[in-house]
Amino acid sequence: MRYTNTQLLSSLLSQGRINANNLEEILDISIKRVRPNIDKIEGMLLGVAIGDSLGNAIELIDPNIRLRRYGFIEDYVSSLGGKRMGLPSDDTQLTFDTVKVILEDGYLNPEKLAKTFFSHEIYGIGISTSEVRDRYLRGMKWYECGVESAGNGALMRISPAILPSLKGDENHLVDAVLDTIITHNDALAIGTSIAFAELFRNLVTSVNEDFLANLPERIFRFVGNRYYKVRIPNANLYELLTREIDKALKRDEDTLTFCERVGSEAYLGETLSCVLFIVKKFREKPQRAILEAVNYTWDSDTIASIVGAIMGAIYGKSAFRKEWIDGLSGRLLINGKDGVIFEMIDEVKSWLSS
Question: What's residue 82's pLDDT?
């Protein structure tokens, strides 16, 4: 009989291995089993792959230079064999690694998940995840490898962590923590994953018009007094995620101006700011929201994948243009099999419906 993930997290907390506050609060939460909207589950997972593939060939290019070079991007830039198509980066790969482990084991098995992450080439791997991979391959245990980094590499893959809680008695908040610490043992990374796991589960099981209202408070419940930098003078990260975003929205600031001002790189403080601004501003225009993330941010694949997952969780497949779905290769490896992503999404739908 295996230890539950709640028991595992409790043990790690008692050993002082996790760098976040107040995690004991999530151990005894009673998770109500509810029937998800299967179309929204499909949209959430597709949104990761579509946003990632729209942004991954042009990431880390100054958005102003990108606009001059490509114009306003509305379709895939990647091509293979002379054919334009949506190809994956690490956002898609690690998200669907998580799906794979959940489908095989019926729950989020963090030990197996770490092994799966580092069993293949990872495209566009971040600095933190690369360091973790080196630690893991040197023989460190999965829960010892995570670095204290506030990068966005855990948030980008967190959406499938809700799946076991929709099928059985698993705690999606606990699963989000264990998934995150494989690579990012950091308070902001952990708090953000918890908050977004809660967000995604709420979106695929109900309609909540005010779904972003308490997200910063939820994140900072687990961050405590740790300091995280921001580019805005005389502001801290919590103020940026609340007051500064609201002020920018009230004066109808455009995405490019906002993201240049606050930053839009792989640091979570910047990623969160851009995601929240874009989703709040373009809540009723899901396709436009994804394209704003693709065109006006530095870390365009990851920010677009997160925005895509949120929009998919709200609207289902209707969040995406038909040509985006048709042009998605569905691969997890560049030279791998087409359509794997679609097959795995169908498996998830069947698994949750059974």
Answer: 74
Q: Are 131 and 144 in contact (CB under 8 A)?
A: no
Concatenating the DSSP letter of every residue in 105-127 gives HSS--HHHHHHHHTTS--TT--H
- Copy the structure tokens of residue 66: 């990108």
- Segment 168-181 shows an average pLDDT of 95
- Its pTM stands at 0.96
Position 29 pLDDT exceeds 90: no
Across the chain, what does the average pLDDT equal? 93
Q: Hey, what are 75's tokens? A: 């379709």
Q: Name the 3-class secondary structure at 61.
A: coil
339: left (phi over 0), alpha (psi -120 to 50) or beta: left
Closest to 164 measured CA to CA, from 95, 98, 108, 100: 108
Strand partners, 84: 79
User: What ranges do the domains of the chain cover?
Assistant: 8-24+36-74+82-353
- According to DSSP, residue 185 is labeled -
**Tens digits of per-residue pLDDT, 191-219?**
999 999 999 999 999 866 677 888 999 99
- Any idea which architecture 8-24+36-74+82-353 has in CATH? Orthogonal Bundle (1.10)
Task: Read off the DSSP letter of residue 84.
Answer: E
Q: What pLDDT is stored for residue 25 in this prediction?
A: 94
Summarize pLDDT for 91-129 with one digit per residue, the tens: 999 999 999 999 999 999 999 999 999 999 999 888 889
Q: How far apart are CA 134 and CA 117, in angstroms?
A: 12
Tokens of 23: 């995690």
At CA 265, angle to CA 263 and CA 268, rounded to 5? 90
From the list 200, 35, 24, the residue with the least C-alpha distance to 192 is 200
With 0-12 / 13-18 / 19 or more C-beta atoms within 10 angstroms meaning exposed / middle / buried, residue 72 is exposed
Radius of gyration of the chain (CA): 19
Query: Closest by alpha carbon to 159, among 328, 280, 275, 24?
Result: 275
